[in-house]
Write a structure and sequence with these properties.
36% helix; six-stranded antiparallel beta sheet; 163 residues; Muramoyl-pentapeptide Carboxypeptidase, domain 2; 5 helices; binds zinc ion
């Protein structure tokens, strides 16, 4: 029998949480202890210049991103990317495969509920605290709902923000 592997955030991940709201940081730091899928912090606080470039490139849809410094002086969003030896070749790398994002979202929900801090996930744009549906189902439901009204689904698996 093997014990559940536990993960920790690396220096680069921790540095990317600088300027991010302490409540979101708390949830991320608890989630890394709970998650079955290791992750790294890809981005936290973002400058308006960078946000403008992302919108122009179609990588973001709004200039009101929660990654920007909010009225309280903090960024309210962070992007988490799966990290691991996915090919089994002894090299760790990031993964953009959806299946690897779901366990991270589950861990973020568990941490958010435990800490009573409300977190919205970009995979479905729902507040995870309010639902017990599996995260796979949340994404499927969101996509189906958007399609039913003839709209494009903008799913952003790495993205978590304060709700
Ligand atoms: Zn984001």
């Amino acid at each position: 029998m093997t014990e559940k592997q536990t993960y920790t955030l690396g220096k680069t991940s921790l540095s990317k949480l600088n300027g991010v709201h302490p409540n979101l940081v708390k949830v991320i730091k608890r989630a890394i202890e709970l998650t079955s899928q290791d992750f790294s912090v890809n981005e936290g606080l973002r400058t308006l210049d960078r946000q403008k470039r992302l919108v122009a490139a179609g990588a973001s849809r709004t200039l009101n991103s929660k990654h920007l410094k909010q009225a309280d002086g903090y960024g309210h969003a962070s992007d988490l990317i799966p990290w691991g030896d996915f090919d089994g070749n002894g090299t760790k790398e990031i993964s953009w495969a959806w299946e690897n994002f779901y366990p991270i979202a589950e861990a973020m929900r568990a941490a958010a509920k435990e800490l009573n801090i409300r977190i919205r996930w970009g995979g479905c744009w729902e507040t995870l605290n309010d639902t017990t549906k599996p995260t796979t189902q949340l994404v499927a439901d969101y996509v189906a709902l958007r399609r039913s009204v003839g709209k494009r689904a903008f799913i952003d698996g790495p993205h978590f923000e304060l709700a």
